[in-house]
Design a protein that fits this description.
The chain is α+β, with helices and mostly antiparallel strands. It has helices at 5-10, 58-74; strands spanning 18-21, 25-29, 37-43, 81-84, 100-104. A hairpin with a 7-residue loop joins β2 (25-29) and β3. The termini are far apart. The structure holds guanosine-5'-monophosphate.
Length: 113
């Protein structure tokens, strides 16, 4: 299976400013931000999308959400924030490597487009 864009950034094969990393994930600033704060929280494990995650990914998935909450606190998003996971073409997924979008810093509309 060929490496995804995010895997290449993780492996240092293409440039990407890593804002945070630990043994389970990296965090990038989205290249095309949709809000003043727009981070991507990406597991090191190349799970393609949440719909293909398995029982063995339970702690990884939990880690991504806990990290999102921690980053939101660190970035003072006390007025609120949104976590988004796009899945498949109808869901707006463009990179087939699971990632959690953390959006904040402005009032976000609902429903999403
Ligand atoms: P998706 O549409 O799959 O949910 O999200 C993929 C996200 O990756 C998009 O928001 C897009 O702007 C972002 N993105 C695409 N290429 C790059 C890149 O090279 N670097 C970074 N940091 N983000 C990227």
């Amino acid at each position: 299976m060929s490496k995804t864009l995010f895997q290449k950034i993780m492996d240092g094969e293409i440039p990407g400013q890593i804002e945070y990393e630990d043994d389970q994930c990296i965090v990038l600033r989205d290249i095309n931000p949709q809000a003043p704060t727009h981070l991507l929280i990406i597991p090191r494990k190349p799970i393609p999308r949440v719909g293909e995650a398995t029982e063995e990914d339970q702690s990884t998935l939990g880690h991504l959400l806990l990290k999102a909450g921690e980053l939101a606190r660190k970035l003072n998003l006390e007025n609120g924030f949104r976590i988004v996971i796009n899945n498949g073409s109808d869901g707006g997924e463009t990179v087939p490597h699971l990632h959690v979008h953390l959006l904040g810093g402005r009032a976000l509309g609902w429903p999403p487009g």
